[in-house]
Amino acid sequence: MTAEEIIKLKENALKECQAAGTMNELEAVRVRYIGRNGYLPQVMKGLKDVDPSERSEYGRIANEFKNQVSAALDYKKTELAERGTAEAKSVFDYSLPGVWRSLGTKHPISSIIEETVRIFGKLGFTVAEGPDVETAYHNFEALNTPAHHPSLDQTDTFWFETGELLRTQTSPVQIRVMESRKPPIRIITPGRCYRRDTTDATHSANFHQIEGLYVEKNVSLADLKGTLAYFAKEMMGTGVDIRFRPHFFPFTEPSVECDFTCHVCGGKGCRVCKNSGWIEIAGAGMVDPRVFKKVGYDPEEITGYAFGMGIERIAMIKYSINDIRLLYENDARFLSQFI
Ligand code: DAH
Predict the structure, then answer these.
(1) Ligand 1 site, CB within 6 A
(2) Is the pLDDT of residue 46 over 90?
(3) Residue 15: which pLDDT band, with cuts at 50, 70 and 90?
(4) Between the N and C ends of the chain, which has fewer C-beta atoms within 10 Å?
């Protein structure tokens, strides 16, 4: 092979290198030009037949052939490898639907509490809180509940050996607030309550209440009724009215139970209200003078109303939930329906 032939061969090799579109094509170029059975061994072998005066020039051209073709092969190999990764990446299909992370939603109990706080907030009520572990004094005695009252029974209340208990109602917060403040007082107190109830569709040993307390001079039952009527419309809809039925609570006198018009049938009577047209929502009344005495207020001078209602009950009525246990199971399929 002459020096010119080697140069021509080199140029062809470089062109073919350049043209190779895949690793396989490139490998074929390598085998043909510098592989063991390719051109390179022939080129090297030809050296010994060359006239000694031209041998160094031939050697230089032969080396150039080997080096340049090897370099071109390496260069092309890197280029093809990089293109391969880029193509692999571009396999991502932008038209596929995305994978959504599911967001949490507000628990219905939290929603009812927030809504209640908002509604009473517009009437000037602020939020007060008290401990879940209460003294018997705050939970019962100061609320004019005598020691023989059935709610003090072992079977109704969770007692600690210390004589303390898990509060059975949010009413003790009334006492704590009145003990520490002077009238006027206008508070609502959302919180957990505990009773030794066996769990079923409408009972839970752990539930929530919201208590309200308004203490000032010249507060009347009419003020209580106006306030609860406003709350009923804001919470359930403008068509909802309220009624009072006489009742008894140890800490209010007079005491009432407050019903809302059934928001499902509008008062005509349906399954939800058991055909009565009304749904019982709250206990309420005028603060008993004995309660005022316990906290050091003068009942001749000071008046007030109080009310308490079950948050689960409002949630169940408002959202048509027929089993209280659904509220505690934390099943995302249930909870995600309340946004
Ligand atoms: N604490 C009562 C209960 O758990 C509800 C209640 C009734 C609260 C009358 C009050 C009230 O503040 O005045 O059944």
Answers:
(1) 169, 171, 211, 249, 252, 283-285, 306-308
(2) no
(3) very high
(4) C
Q: Report how far apart the first and last C-alpha atoms of the chain are (Å, whole number).
A: 85
210, amino acid identity: I
Domains, in order of start, for the chain: 3-90 (no CATH), 108-335 (3.30.930.10)
Distance CA 136, CA 147 (A): 10
3-state secondary structure of 19: helix
pLDDT for residue 182 is more than 80: yes
Portion of the chain with pLDDT greater than 90, in percent:
69
Task: Give one DSSP letter per residue of 34-98, joined into a string.
Answer: HSTTSHHHHHHHGGGGS-HHHHHHHHHHHHHHHHHHHHHHHHHHHHHHHHHHHHHHTT--TTSPP
Half-sphere exposure (CA, 13 Å, Cβ side) for 173? 29
Q: Where are the beta strands (DSSP E) in 163-277?
A: 165-166, 185-194, 206-216, 242-249, 252-261
Q: Which two tokens stand for residue 201?
A: 């569709």
What pLDDT, on the 0 to 100 scale, is given for residue 186? 98
Structure tokens at 171: 């009413």
In this predicted structure, the answer to whether residue 41 has a pLDDT above a threshold of 80 is: yes
Atom 5 of ligand 1 has which residue's CA nearest to it?
308
Of residues 309, 32, 74, the one with CA closest to residue 171 = 309
- In sequence order, the β-bridge partners of residue 245 are 257
Q: What is the mean pLDDT of residues 195-206?
A: 91
- The pLDDT tens digits for 76-99 are 999 988 887 777 777 778 888 888
Residue 307 Cα, ligand 1 centroid: separation in angstroms? 6
| Residue with CA nearest ligand 1 atom 2 | 308
Average pLDDT score over residue span 217-245: 95
Phi-psi region of 67 (alpha: psi -120 to 50; beta: other; left: phi over 0): alpha
Given ligand 1 and candidates 120, 166, 178, 211, which is best to mutate, with the most ligand atoms within 8 Å of its CB? 211
Distance between CA atoms of residues 221 and 229, nearest Å? 12
